[in-house]
Specification:
Blueprint lengths: L5 E7 L7 H11 L6 E7 L1 H4 L6 H17 L7 E5 L5 H10 L4 H5 L2 H9 L6 H15 L5 E3 L5 H18 L7 E3 L34 H9 L16 H14 L3 H7 L4 H28 L2 H30 L5
Parallel strand pairs: 1-2, 2-3, 4-5
The structure holds tryptophanyl-5'AMP (TYM).
Length: 332
């Protein structure tokens, strides 16, 4: 699509306050692609409505997510930053790809099964076909690389299968995307229940560290993080809490497990938790500061959204025209 550069695409749902899981698994890595790739980073508000949202909250979080993208280092001059509902081609291709996605495939998606349990009173068709809309997001821009946390791997594989199926039936139409899953930080666990993923929709606020938490809150949450009955800071089987804290510390400091074990030899969990909290708070302080500046300027954020949507829509149109032609729709 872009003669000079390959394409990166990723998205974040504005469905809750963003966590250090979102940051370490995805957002922090986004800016590393900005020079070498043509990058599209989207606020996926249409995905968010697969579970009930309070409209005012959804609107506010859409601005917040965009501001956080930028606070985390994404320059709107070097990246196309936009909101999914501003580019109707996502819904358009989503529908077409629904016709190339099997009921059985969607039934096997673990996120659908999890969310159906959590929202048993609202198992809507959108929740079921969520992965097809995600495939549309990706395939619309002829994406090569998709940076995501490991929880999105199954959705990504489905996007690849859909692309290959369509290409097989209609000749090459879509680039078949690859996932880019960070080595460290691909799955940050809950601080309260370290066998479960840290999730922005978790009702227990002590389980989650938000990107925008104050330093005091961050320190308090790490202090209360669930560990085990041992006292030696060492990675190992059955030490889910410590393993998770070591991962977080590695992400924020760049240290290895061996270095961390040496640093905390003979010092116990208390000292370690404090150090993880400090490292996290220090690393996020500049993000929080920049975010505070950006979120105060709605007009600027709207101008970024508008420019981003125009650039994205232009690229998306090319793929839609191609798909329309291949499917046999009459084009005027
Ligand atoms: P979402 O909004 O749940 O999460 C945004 C990104 O954060 C990653 N992530 C995590 N990484 C590590 N540890 C965690 N605890 C953790 N929690 C979340 C997610 O893997 C994701 O990369 N379906 C997507 C949004 C989406 C999308 C797309 C992504 C829609 N269309 C197209 C990529 C490409 C989602 O729900 O992300």
């Amino acid at each position: 699509m872009f003669q000079d550069k390959k394409v990166v695409f990723s998205g974040v749902q504005p469905s809750g306050n963003l966590t250090i899981g979102n940051y370490l698994g995805a957002i922090k890595n986004f800016s590393t692609f900005s020079e070498e790739y043509h990058c599209f980073y989207c606020v996926v508000d249409m995905h968010a409505i697969t579970v009930r949202q309070v409209p005012a909250d959804l609107r506010r979080r859409t601005y917040e997510t965009l501001a956080l993208y930028m606070a985390a280092g994404l320059d709107p001059k070097k990246n196309t930053l936009f909101v999914q509902s501003h580019v109707p081609a996502h819904a358009e291709l989503g529908w077409m790809l629904n016709c190339f996605t099997m009921f059985g495939e969607l039934s096997r998606m673990t996120q659908f099964k999890d969310k159906s349990q959590k929202h048993a009173d609202n198992i809507n068709a959108g929740l079921f076909t969520y992965p097809t809309l995600m495939a549309a997001d990706i395939l619309l821009y002829q994406t090569e690389l998709v940076p995501v946390g490991v929880d999105q791997k199954q959705h990504l594989e489905l996007a690849r299968d859909i692309a290959q199926r369509f290409n097989g039936l209609y000749s090459d139409t879509f680039v078949v995307p690859e996932g880019y899953i960070a080595q460290t930080g691909m799955k940050i666990m809950s601080l309260a229940e370290p066998t479960a993923k840290m999730s922005k929709s978790d009702p227990n606020p002590n389980a989650i560290v938000y990107i925008l938490d104050s330093k005091d809150d961050i320190l308090r949450k790490f202090k209360r993080a669930v560990t085990d009955s041992g006292c030696e800071v060492r990675a190992g089987e059955g030490k889910d809490g410590i393993n998770n804290l070591m991962t977080i510390y590695r992400c924020f400091t760049g240290k290895t497990n061996e270095e961390i074990e040496a640093e905390f030899a003979g010092r116990g969990y208390g000292d370690f938790k404090l150090a993880v909290g400090e490292a996290c708070a220090d690393a996020l302080a500049p993000v929080r500061e920049e975010y505070t500046r950006l979120i105060a300027d709605k007009a600027y954020l709207e101008s970024v959204m508008k420019e981003g949507a125009e650039a994205a829509a232009y690229c998306a149109r090319k793929t839609i025209s191609k798909v329309n032609r291949k499917l046999g729709f009459v084009t005027l």
